[in-house]
From TrEMBL:
It comes from the Bacteria. It holds the Pfam family DUF6350. Residues 1-30, 409-498 are annotated as: Disordered. Keywords: Membrane, Transmembrane, Transmembrane helix. Coiled coil: none annotated. This is Integral membrane protein. Residues 427-437, 468-482 have a biased composition (Low complexity).
Amino acid sequence: MVFGEKAMSVTEPSTTPAEDSPPAPAPATRTDAAPLGRVSVLVAAAATAGWAALVSFVPLLVLVLLGWLLAGGAGAATSALRVAGAAWLLANGVPLHTPIGPYGLVPLALTAFVAWRLVRAGGNTARALADRRAALLGAVGVAAGYGLLAALLALLVSGPDVSVSAPRAFLTAGGLALVCAVSGAAHRSGMLRHIAGQFSPAVRAGLRSGAFAAVTLLGLGAFTAGGSLAWHADRAADTFRAYQAGPVGDIGLALLCLLYAPTVSVWAVAYLSGPGFAFGTHTAVGIGGVHLGPVPAIPLLAGLPTSAAPTAGALLLGLPLLVGVATGWLVARRDTGPGLTPLVFATALSGAVAGALFAVAGALSAGSLGGGRLAMIGPSWWQLGLAVAGLVGVAAMAAGLTARTVARVRPHRTPAGGTRLGPTPTPDASPSAPDGGPSAGGSAGPATDGTGPSAPTGADGSRDGKADGAQQPAADPAAHHQGPADRPGDDGGAGPAT
């Protein structure tokens, strides 16, 4: 054995570095790496901002050019390019100034697509930089670059018939990009998860349930608006026929209605929750009464109510309350903490979150279609936010307390005490062998050396200390005589004996 160890020590290369080996190159200094980091942030932000703008602009450009070609190429091609640029700026919330007045009614379908691309841009920037601080700095760079592109496009679009303020385009589009890119970067870098982990269970439950209530209400508004349009389908068909634009014009009108469908859905939520909305100055559309003037001939507007809802129509106010009841029941099934106080706080917070989201949606869905009578269109953002927050919050609070106290609904918890978000996990148990021996997972039973029975165990499953000492002999007597240099695995050792 000694001869084998010596042979191994001669044949194996030494793990210690040679004395005459050249020294390792010194790492780059901080001053050398800092400019490269700044350049990397700028390059990543510029690339992702430009890609987000291009991906959101090209579909509009293709649709406008396709319509221009199908219409026989009437007018110059530059006019079609300017129309596509103006539509892209409007989707970013930038108002257009026309000879008849400002045009600021945002197509929320396009805005949602633009926001999604900006969120992806922030996430891609964070992935490229792989650092939280650099990711946030890159998101700010995305917003700045995106705003500069919007300002440049505003200068190119402006002309005698349509003009766009370049500073307004920079601030509005850049602000939208800042919110979306920072959200995407924070999500991609794990910062949102880290921040959410600092909140209490009641706060997390309120935030999630408020987002659930807002999405459910928006779907309910879309269903209501679609049902009203289907009820007045003959009126919408007459509007299509009045244009006599042919198949190309009908397709264009249908696309226009689809782009503004989310906007009308927000109006429907305002109608259901009580405040209603306006379609022109000194007008009001609500469940209690309708005061409308002449409406533009757009098929999507054929579903606007022309009179107050009947007595049974007051039941429509109960639809947001049903959403609040479902939200409260959902909160009651979550782990909000001991007692009823966290539950009350979570349900109130869910109403506040839903109201805040719809206040933003109400502000985005309001605008103008020129000056004069159509200078005020859409709901009041603060009235819509307060109404949704009150209806959802009160209904959720009542439903949550009822579920906990009367229906005895308890949050599902894991064995560790956390909230169960899915099926209860079963503990990992190693299957025992068929012959009653040790399991395949390696968890063996009491060890015996073949000379006697195993050591007795106590009531808690632990063995007696004397028995442990008696039943753990050294497996290899030579192991007690190994020095540090002879142990296999130590740095500088000679390896295993042969």
